[in-house]
Structures are given as structure tokens and as C-alpha cells.
Write a structure and sequence with these properties.
The protein is built from ten helices and five strands. The chain is of the alpha/beta class and 212 residues long. The protein has two domains: 133 residues, Rossmann fold; 65 residues, Orthogonal Bundle (Arc Repressor Mutant, subunit A), CATH 1.10.10. Strands 2-1-3-4-5 form a five-stranded parallel beta sheet, with helices on both faces. Strand 4, helix 4 and strand 5 form a beta-alpha-beta unit. Helix 2 runs parallel beside helix 3, helix 7 crosses helix 9 and helix 8 packs across helix 9. The chain starts with a strand and ends with a helix. The relative contact order is 0.10.
Length: 212
């Protein structure tokens, strides 16, 4: 069994290789620290499993799913990330990933994810399962919601202006609303998207817009 790890942190790569050797001693593991090299490897060698970080040199976040699947449609993709799985997992699964595992997960959960992916082709933690269930549309019973879709029209406008780098006072002037009203919208946006500042907001929106 061939496994490819694309991860830019050497210690994490070493840890993953050790865990894999314990579960599947005969597995052949190839590794690289950047996405373009990973894609070149995929073009020349067949893999059963691809373990992929979200933020990689040369990578484009959620667009990496399509690029990997284009080269090997049957490869199983496990996203291994330090980002909040309750927010990031769903967009990546919708984009083509087969599993999502937090880097904070215990060792036994990696074993569970690894075996589930190889046996069933899918894996998400219990927390992500709950997130998916909570996002099932009441109307259709099957349509999954992107967190951005929970924003009101006014919140969407404020969000876009924040991403453009506008301050609360500037947004207040543009939208002709009181500053405390803009501050309230800003807090709601941060709460709904689970971010703590404008930089994190911009990064998360760039990711989530791929799943709308």
C-alpha cells in the first residue's frame, strides 16, 4: 500500500510515519513538504491514501482537493489540520476530501480514521458528525449549510468591508449606521464564523466561499 504525506512540518511528518508503521508495517510512505511537489509525485506514482495539511507552501487551500483528484480520482484524501474541524471540515469534505482529522486528536483516533478510510473510504469525528447534522436544512432534510449562509444581508456587507480592511468608523460612515451597531454586527460575524480577528476572518471566508 502506497501512502503520500504532504505536510510542511518535519516533526508532524515523522509522527505520521511512525503511526502508520504501527498500523500498517508494510505500507510504503512517500513524503514532501510542499503542494506542487506533491502533485508531481501524484502524476507519476499511484497512491491509496493522501494525507494532506490545509496550509502548505504552493497550496491553495480548498482548491487542492480538485487538483489532487484530477491527478488521481481514486486516491483517498485525509485532511490533517490544526484548524477548527467544526468549521473547516465540512467545506473540505464538500470539495472532495474523504476524511478530516484534527492535529489535536489523540493517537487512537488517528488509528480509527486510518482504518475507517481504508475500509469504508470515509472518516469524520463525532464532533464533525454533529456539525453536519446541525447544518442539515430543515426544508430539504439534506442540503448542508455553509456558515456564511447564516449571516444576514447587513452582516454580509459588514463582513466584506472588514475584509477590505475598513475600520468600524469607516463602515459606519459607508453604511450610514451608528458605530455601536457596526460593532454589534462585527461581533455576530465573528461568533457565527468562529474567528477572533479580521485576518482570521479573511482567511476563513476565502475557504468557506469555496463551499457555498
Amino acid at each position: 500500500m502506497e501512502i503520500l504525506i504532504i505536510e510542511d512540518h518535519p516533526i508532524i511528518r515523522a509522527g505520521l510515519k511512525q503511526l502508520i508503521s504501527e498500523i500498517a508495517p508494510k505500507a510504503i510512505v512517500t513524503e514532501t513538504d510542499n503542494f506542487p511537489e506533491g502533485m508531481r509525485i501524484l502524476e507519476h506514482k499511484k497512491f491509496k491514501l493522501l494525507i494532506l495539511d490545509i496550509e502548505l507552501p504552493g497550496g491553495e487551500n480548498i482548491k487542492m482537493m480538485a487538483q489532487a483528484k484530477k491527478r488521481q480520482p481514486d486516491v483517498i484524501i485525509l485532511i490533517h489540520s490544526g484548524h477548527d474541524e467544526s468549521v473547516y471540515a465540512l467545506p473540505y469534505l464538500q470539495a472532495g476530501a474523504d476524511g478530516f482529522l484534527s492535529k489535536q486528536a489523540p493517537v487512537n483516533e488517528f488509528h480509527l480514521a486510518f482504518n475507517s478510510l481504508l475500509n469504508n473510504g470515509k472518516y469524520v469525528s463525532h464532533r464533525v458528525q454533529q456539525t453536519i447534522l446541525n447544518n442539515i436544512s430543515e426544508r430539504s432534510g439534506s442540503k448542508l449549510k455553509n456558515p456564511i449562509s447564516s449571516l444576514s444581508h447587513q452582516e454580509m456587507l459588514v463582513m466584506e468591508l472588514l475584509i477590505e480592511g475598513k475600520w468600524t468608523k469607516e463602515i459606519s460612515s459607508i453604511m450610514k449606521l451608528k458605530e455601536n451597531t457596526i460593532s454589534t454586527y462585527k461581533k455576530r460575524i465573528f461568533d457565527k464564523l468562529r474567528v477572533s480577528d479580521e485576518l482570521e476572518l479573511a482567511k476563513k471566508v476565502a475557504l468557506l466561499k469555496g463551499g457555498i
